[in-house]
Design a protein that fits this description.
alpha+beta; Aspartate Aminotransferase, domain 1; six-stranded antiparallel beta sheet; 4 helices; YdhG-like
Length: 122
C-alpha cells in the first residue's frame, strides 16, 4: 500500500493527470478567493483555514468535492440548481468545466460567514 500524502503537493501529485489539472484549477480559484488562508491537509484532505477551517477539497475517482459548510450551500441553493450538491458539498466532475463563478461565490460566502459570524466549519 502506498504511503498517505503528508502535504497538499503530495496529495495532488498522487492524483491521475486529468484530476490533477482540475484540482490545481480549483486550488487556484480558492487561493485567489482566500489569499491569506493557510492550506494544509486535515483528515487527509486539503483544507483552507484562517483560525478555523474555511473549506476543503477532496478528490475522488471521477469527481472532486468542494465543501464549504451546510449553511453556505443552503444560502446559495437557488444558484446551485444546475449543479450536483448535497447538504454540504458541491460535486465537480472531472469531465466538465469547473463552475468558476459558483465556486468563487461559495468561497466568498463562507469567508464572510466566518469573518462576520465566527461560524464554525461543520
Amino acid at each position: 500500500m502506498a504511503d498517505k500524502p503528508k502535504t497538499v503537493e503530495e496529495y495532488v501529485a498522487a492524483l491521475p493527470e486529468g484530476a490533477q489539472r482540475h484540482f490545481r484549477e480549483i486550488m487556484a480559484i480558492l487561493s485567489d478567493a482566500a489569499p491569506e488562508a493557510s492550506v494544509a491537509l486535515k483528515w487527509g484532505t486539503p483544507a483552507f483555514s484562517y483560525d478555523r477551517i474555511l473549506f476543503t477539497v477532496a478528490a475522488y475517482k471521477k469527481h472532486m468535492n468542494f465543501c464549504p459548510t451546510p449553511a453556505v450551500i443552503s444560502a446559495c441553493k437557488a444558484e446551485l440548481t444546475a449543479q450536483k450538491v448535497t447538504d454540504c458539498v458541491l460535486q465537480i466532475p472531472y469531465d466538465k468545466p469547473i463552475p468558476v463563478e459558483i465556486v468563487r461565490k461559495l468561497a466568498e460566502c463562507r469567508i464572510r460567514d466566518l469573518v462576520e459570524n465566527d461560524a464554525r466549519w461543520m
